[in-house]
């Protein structure tokens, strides 16, 4: 790798810098082409006639309209190799984006509800993680997410099914429809997860109010907030997040697709960084929201002219610091990052 010259365009730097992705739902990386291929392989009937018809249906008006189609897409995943193929396709794209580390969310209930055993899901994903490390040099971890529109009892059942595979995942999260499903609904199951030594994260403050972020902190005792962009509505909460150095995994293109912000130029990511928050950039559900990680960086930096090389460096560094890996790995990635930026800062 060469170091940056003053003339290197920002886009090239954004593409080239090493980075970690901490908010990617692996089921949300399922591209229409792969959905059709798996549907054919497994003999699953889809209600869309073609790849184009499916892609055309990706015009969401809010989180719920997205989730409806997301669950329909996941219905083609039945066998271990389907989960492998899905995660492998993501890792190939991640390598192209210079992602050196990824923490993947997966939603077991989306599959166990359809009669697919937990074991099938986790073995396929784990195998892809192993191969990504061997062949692409990408390190990765799995984080099990509970679907918050289902009950806490259901989450407890899922945790029980997962326990024999405890060594294959490092933490738990909370995703799906936020409004009407506050973190407090899952207080007891997260307490159990903490006792098991699992890392804790939760989606909060995407569509839901800043009070959901406070609940995630106080009741679930999260180590990262997924999204969290609505924290700005409560200045004392922003101060607390800064003071506690609580990372936010922000997803710019997702936020526009799901109408959290009308346009990318309205996005508050630059303001979050300005206020000292440990924000990161992530792709969320890239097959559905218009782009993988580098696309998020490039479109965001184009839309927000106050973002430059210094902020690019900070965002990449934040992604390493906020990851759940040992200090030595974080330090090694920071060295790579320093090398790429060279005298640009
Ligand atoms: Zn998400």
Automatic annotation (TrEMBL):
An example molecular function term from Gene Ontology annotations: adenine deaminase activity
Cellular component per GO, a single term: cytosol
Sequence ranges assigned to domain Adenosine deaminase in this UniProt record: 18-338
InterPro entries in alphabetical order: A_deaminase_dom, ADE, Ado/ade_deaminase, Metal_Hydrolase
Keyword field contains Zinc: yes
Cofactor note: Binds 1 zinc ion per subunit.
Family of the protein in this entry: Belongs to the metallo-dependent hydrolases superfamily. Adenosine and AMP deaminases family. Adenine deaminase type 2 subfamily.
Protein name: Adenine deaminase
Species this chain originates from: Azohydromonas caseinilytica
């Amino acid at each position: 790798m060469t170091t940056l010259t003053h003339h290197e365009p920002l886009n090239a730097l954004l593409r080239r810098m090493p980075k970690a992705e901490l908010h990617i739902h692996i089921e949300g990386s399922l591209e229409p082409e792969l959905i059709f291929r798996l549907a054919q392989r497994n003999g699953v009937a889809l209600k869309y006639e073609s790849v184009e018809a499916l892609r055309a249906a990706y015009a969401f008006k809010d989180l719920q309209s997205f989730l409806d189609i997301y669950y329909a897409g996941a219905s083609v995943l039945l066998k271990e190799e389907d989960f492998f193929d899905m995660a492998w396709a993501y890792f190939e794209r991640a390598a192209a984006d210079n992602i050196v580390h990824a923490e993947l969310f997966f939603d077991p209930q989306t599959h166990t509800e359809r009669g697919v055993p937990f074991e099938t899901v986790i073995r396929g994903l784990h195998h892809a993680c192993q191969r990504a490390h061997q062949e692409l040099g990408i390190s990765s971890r799995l984080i099990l997410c509970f679907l918050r529109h289902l009950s806490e009892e259901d989450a407890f059942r899922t945790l029980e099914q997962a326990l024999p595979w405890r060594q294959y995942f490092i933490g738990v999260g909370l995703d799906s429809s936020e409004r009407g499903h506050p973190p407090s609904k899952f207080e007891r199951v997260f307490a159990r997860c903490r006792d098991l030594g699992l890392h804790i994260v939760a989606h909060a403050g995407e569509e839901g109010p800043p009070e959901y972020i406070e609940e995630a902190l106080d009741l679930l005792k999260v180590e990262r907030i997924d999204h969290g962009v609505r924290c700005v509505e409560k200045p004392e909460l922003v101060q607390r997040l800064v003071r506690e150095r609580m990372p936010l995994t922000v997803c710019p293109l997702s936020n526009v697709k799901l109408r959290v912000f009308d346009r990318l130029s309205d996005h508050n990511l630059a303001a979050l960084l300005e206020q000292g928050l440990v924000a990161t950039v992530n792709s969320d559900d890239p097959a559905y929201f218009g782009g993988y990680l580098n696309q998020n960086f490039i479109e965001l930096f184009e839309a927000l002219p106050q973002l430059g090389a210094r902020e690019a460096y900070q965002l990449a560094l934040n992604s390493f610091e906020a990851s759940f890996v040992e200090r030595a790995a974080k330090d090694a990635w920071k060295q790579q990052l320093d090398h790429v930026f060279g005298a640009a800062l």
